[in-house]
From TrEMBL:
This is Glutaminase. It holds the Pfam family Glutaminase. The keyword S-adenosyl-L-methionine does not apply. GO terms for biological process: glutamate biosynthetic process; L-glutamine catabolic process. It comes from Brevibacillus parabrevis. The gene is glsA2. Homotetramer. It catalyses: L-glutamine + H2O = L-glutamate + NH4(+).
Length: 329
């Protein structure tokens, strides 16, 4: 048996894989409704028809389908890890003093709210203004030290050292005028804990961490279990920080499509413009699903919509959640 959590559970890994393979083949077709991110030249070259998924459960049980092994950069998915990292170091109160927890309904890189709402506190850590602020809060007096702290958390969860895709980083750095504008505004209003260029370097490097769907699913799994790493048998992240991060994923993780995603999928999730989605199913949600003990889910499908979310990935998730009845609502 694939899972032994309930004797009534009938799923076998092969059967789950076959479902996923069929659904991936079907939803891959949806990719033509989106396009690869073009504002970062290095992302434009991805094959828009790719779609892959990895689901990992608490015993390490893993099912995969499609292009699940293809490397891609974390992009905004990294915002969840950096927020958790900053909270681990400073405590939640310190971080929440500098970044709020309210959805905006605006684009991820929007500038408009910063000046409209004095004193210019970023609305949440999942939009760029909030994420750049959070990156500046990471401990250390240099970008290297800040990234070192973030990498250590990444490594503890995924059991792999992070690799930066230098081509993507350089491409982002060369085209980061809007992020630079955000960072300058945040520096002016006193929200950045370091210099503009340092905060940007940390933020853009964390976006350029190269991953595959399995690593993303592993992070999702640890979040599903409130910071407990079942494969290490260790609480690697504080429960209250993880719960806050999941609330932010649900309300802000899919940008200006977060409401629709909560309504039609119903799982905490975080997307990135390279086409990644990290999501998770909490344990004991539906005993008849293939993952009654919960799971992390990593998806890669580089054709994105106008909000920055993978078109085929969201479509695939809708089907999985519907078929296996695993919405949290
Ligand atoms: O700030 C940027 O432009 C990117 N490096 C990250 C943005 C991102 O992934 C937004 N996602 N959907």
């Amino acid at each position: 048996m694939f899972q032994t959590a309930t004797s009534a559970n009938k799923w076998e890994a092969q059967q789950v894989t076959e479902h996923l393979q069929r659904w991936v083949a079907y939803h891959r077709e949806q990719a033509s409704e989106g396009a690869c991110a073009s504002y970062i030249p290095a992302l434009r070259r991805a094959d828009p028809t790719q779609l892959g998924i990895c689901m990992v459960g608490p015993s390490g049980n893993k099912v995969t389908a499609g292009d699940w092994e293809v490397p891609f950069t974390m992009q905004s998915i990294s915002k969840v890890v950096s927020f958790i990292a900053a909270c681990c170091h400073h405590g939640m109160a310190y971080v929440l003093d500098r970044v709020d927890v309210e959805p905006t309904g605006d684009a991820f890189n929007s500038i408009i709210r910063l000046e409209m709402h004095k004193p210019g506190k970023p609305f949440n850590p999942m939009i760029n203004a909030g994420a750049i602020t959070v990156s500046s809060l990471l401990p250390g007096s240099t970008p290297e030290q800040k990234l070192h702290y973030l990498y250590a958390i990444f490594q503890k969860i995924t059991d792999s050292a992070p690799v930066i895709n230098e081509e993507v980083f350089v491409s982002e750095w060369m085209h980061s005028h809007r992020n630079r504008a955000l960072a300058h505004y945040l520096k002016d209003t006193g929200y950045l804990d370091c210099e503009v260029e340092e905060a940007l370097e940390v933020y853009l490097k964390q976006c350029s961490i190269q991953v595959n769907t399995e690593q993303i699913a592993l992070i999702g799994l640890v979040l599903a279990l409130d910071g407990y790493h079942p494969l290490r048998g260790e609480q690697v992240l504080p429960k209250e920080v993880v719960r806050l991060a999941k609330a932010l994923m649900l309300t802000c993780g899919m940008y200006d499509a977060s409401g629709k995603f909560a309504a039609y999928v119903g799982l905490p999730a975080k997307s990135g413009v390279s086409g990644g989605i990290m999501t998770l199913v909490p344990p004991n949600l539906r005993s008849q699903s293939p993952f009654p003990g919960g799971c992390g889910i990593g998806i890669f499908g580089p054709a994105i919509d106008s909000c920055g979310n993978s078109v085929a990935g969201v479509s695939l998730l809708k089907q999985i959640v519907h078929e296996w009845d695993i919405s949290i609502f």
